[in-house]
Amino acid sequence: MRRFTVPLLVLLLFGVLIGLAYYDKLDLYVQSVLMFMGINIIFGSSLNIVNGYMGEFSCGHAGFMAVGAYVSSVLSVLFFAQDKVFGAPLLPPEYAIYGFPIIVIIAFIAAALTGLLVALPSFKTRGDYLAIITIAANYIIITTIINLDFIGGPRGFMGMKSVIFAMEDVAFLPWMLIWVYIFTILSIWAIYRFVSSTYGKGIIAIHQDEVAAEIMSVNTNKMKLIAFMFSSGLAGVAGALFAHVLGYVNPNSFNILKSTEGLVMVYLGGMGSLSGSVLAAILFTFLLELLRPLQIIKWVVIPLLLIILMQFRPEGIMGNRELSDIFPRLRKFYQFK
Amino acid sequence: MKKFLAGLLTFLFVFSTMVAFAADTIKIGFNIPLTGDIPKVGEASKFAAEMLKEDINSKGGLEVGGKKYKLEFIYEDNESKAESAVSAALKLIERDQVLAIIGPNSSKQAVPAGQVCNDNRTPMISPWSTNPDTTKDRPWVFRAAFLDPFQGPVAVNFASKTFKAKKAAVLFALDNDYSKGLAEIFKSEWEKKHGPGTVVAFETYASKDQDFSAQLTKIIAAKPDFIFLPDNYNEVALIVKQAHDLGWNGPFMGSDAWGSAELMNLCGNDCVGHYFSTHYAAAGATGATKEFIDRYTAKYGYVPDDVAALTWDATRLVLQAIQDAGKITGNVRKDRKAIRDALANIKEFKGITGTMKFDEQGDPIKCAVVVRISEKGEFLFTESVCP
Where would you tag: which of A289, B55, B80, B200 has the fewest CB atoms within 10 A of its CB? Predict the structure, then answer.
């Protein structure tokens, strides 16, 4: 019975959300906040693989998000929408529903390969050096996009909205909400499965002591590459969803500030805690919206909250523990696999 | 913790419903960057809007169809981020049920927010965005500023006539969409007028660069009659100074991004005597424009820049459209439609940044102003160039 609680809850929440959205009980503003929440969850928890579980310091995560966003946008416009650069769609727009998940997966692969390119030379170094290399990678990716004129350069790229409309023409459902929800759950599940598997525990071993891990037969170099690729690939998924929710991408949306937001979510939630980064992403997005009426003062209040948190709870909300470690009784009711 | 969260939730709920019901008011939303990269822009927009609101509310409100309505302006901060601009626009549309939205100002946010407004059938006017995509094929989205392409020909004609120039040089920021676009339009217009090869130097730099001597040496060696700088004011100040150090004495011509109150603080005497095209001229203004500038200066302590003036015009355009629509039915959807139609049908609007009307894309047809930087550091009106 315990095995089914989480899947049931996930399904129930899915049904409730989509139902509410479908019957207009959930206005578009709330939907947009929920979608950005989902995207932030993927973004934050994927960064947690490298910064939390593996104990490295990557600060160019938004660069991989940009790769995912642009790859998916170009593909979905190329295949399913009329565009002034790419011309007529290659496939009938009705297929967008089936094509979109594939495009997101391609975005995952593209971002993961970019991650590999960055990781190969940089994992010879550690700590501060890796931080510098990843910042540089973030800049390289953005500058490359700015100089690619066929995808709009600094003007940004648009046309994804018509792909979403094509999906709505087939079946009138809140499609982006559905996709964000599905991919958020999938990402959390994949990360959980990865870091709790025997193979994935190698990453945590690297965090504890790299030499000891090597002695215990963990192939540390390979492990680090895989973790980094997996992390950047998921950032690409977040980027793909981000681009399609907005219907417009601009290279400046993925600058170092965005990477910093990811870092905030990881350290707010606790390094090496999956439920921590999920909670932190939800809290962070929620706070940003909640404090909107404060206008300028908002950016005094939020950093202040962070300082207070770091002062009294430097390990973040969850530390390196999961929800079931803090409330052991919960284990009676669920099992997350 | 639970109580605290519950308290927060109730607060949020009460707060959001409280604003939603108020009789006999007209609600207009502002989607502006109060924090982030360009907070001064958001502040100028807000100040101009507040001034207009006080004007009208002190007279009892805006008269629509024989009845007076109080104005209610809702300012949403978009943090100068694209995703935040989308959320802010949706919040204004869905929660606050505004009749129209002013902003966002920069194109990075105005393009996606314009999409949201168009999809949800809410009229939007961006005061400052110059990217053609903001309004393109979007019947619900308008703008108050002229487009970048228009400033290219203005600079070409003005420089050909005033400097009697035959050869031009351009220095622009490669990663700045505005700068790059304008530089390219200028080049093609100039070569159309004076023949190929007359743009003798076409040099680039990256935003936030500090040293331009390599590019400037090349430019000066090519002996142009003047240098065109479609760049932001902070970089302009550096470029002009460094060019003078390298022995350049010829004229510079710029674009509306020069028009910041900060320019003269950074540039000092080096910028005196040079020209740029812009939306309006603060010094030498007359009539309503002068009145606006004087009052704004008295109230907030600095001379309003073009964003303030354009926001003022954009807001007045919306109010004009509401009056033209004739009545407020209370049905937000119908009212929004009526306002959009009225906006599209405005025959002639006398704004403080010039007389304008909208073309079929929602872009204004209006004149640009070329100003000269005077010895006192004021931007003096020199010539008005119309399309």
Answer: B55
Does the distance separating the beta carbons of A292 and B91 come in below 8 Å?
yes
Is residue B374 included in any domain, yes or no?
no
CB contact under 8 A, B115 and A161: yes
Domain boundary among B278, B299, B316: B278
d(CA B290, CA B184): 34
Residue B378 forms part of a structural domain: no
- At B6-45, the pLDDT tens digits run 555 555 554 554 444 445 889 999 999 888 878 888 899 9
Domain end residue (candidates: B223, B249, B278): B278
DSSP label at B284? T
Closest CA to B228 of B260, B186, B280, B259: B186
**Which residues, in sequence order, are bridge partners of residue A248?**
A158
**Position A146, amino acid:** I
Closest Cα of chain A to B82: distance in Å? 7
Residue B371 lies in a domain: no
3-state secondary structure of B352: coil
Domain shared by B10 and B51, yes or no: yes
**DSSP one-letter code for A94:** G
Give me the CATH number covering residue B166. Answer: 3.40.50.2300
> Are residue B80 and residue B193 in the same domain, yes or no?
no
Identify whether residues B108 and B129 lie together within a single domain. yes
One domain for residues B272 and B291: no
- The β-bridge relationship of strands B368-373 and B364-365 is unpaired
CATH (residue range A2-332):
1.10.3470
Interface of A with B in 196-255 (CB under 8 A): 242, 245-248, 250, 252-253
- Inter-helix orientation angle A160-170/A61-80, to 10°: 60
Distance CA A85, CA A81 (A): 11
pLDDT at A242: 94
**Tally of structural domains, chain B:** 2
Cα–Cα distance measured from residue A131 to residue B357, given in angstroms and rounded to the nearest whole number: 52
Of B369, B354, B172, B146, residue with least CA distance to B252: B172
**Would you call A296 an interface residue with chain B, using a CB distance cutoff of 8 Å?**
yes
ipTM of model: 0.80
| Chain B residues closer than 8 Å to A293 by CB | 15
pLDDT of residue B19: 46
Neighbours of A3 (CB within 10 A): 11
Write down the H helix ranges in chain A: 2-22, 28-48, 61-80, 96-122, 128-146, 160-170, 175-196, 201-208, 210-215, 220-246, 256-269, 274-290, 298-312, 323-326
Residue range of the domain that includes B243? 148-278
Query: Could you please report the per-residue DSSP string of B207-243?
Result: TT----HHHHHHHHHT--SEEEE---HHHHHHHHHHH
Confidence of residue A241 (pLDDT cuts 50, 70, 90): very high
Q: Hey, where are the domains in chain A?
A: 2-332
Contact (CB<8Å) A156/B94: no
Q: What are residue B31's DSSP bridge partners?
A: B76
- Do B303 and B259 fall into the same domain? no
| B83 neighbourhood in chain A, CB within 8 Å | 36, 242, 245-246, 253
Average pLDDT, integer, range B169-179: 85
Please state the separation of Cα B236 from the chain's center in Å.
19
Q: Could you give phi then psi for residue B275, rounded to 5 degrees?
A: -120, 150
Q: Answer yes or no: do B158 and B141 share one domain.
A: no
Return the ∠ at Cα A36 (arms to A32 and A42), rounded to 5°: 150
Dihedrals phi, psi of B26, to nearest 5 degrees: -110, 125
Residues ≥6 apart with Cβ < 8 Å to A258: A61, A62, A65
Q: How far apart are CA A331 and CA A324, in angstroms?
A: 6
Contact between chains at A248 and B120 (C-beta distance less than 8 A): no
Q: What rounded mean pLDDT belongs to chain B?
A: 86
- B293 and B353 assigned to the same domain: yes
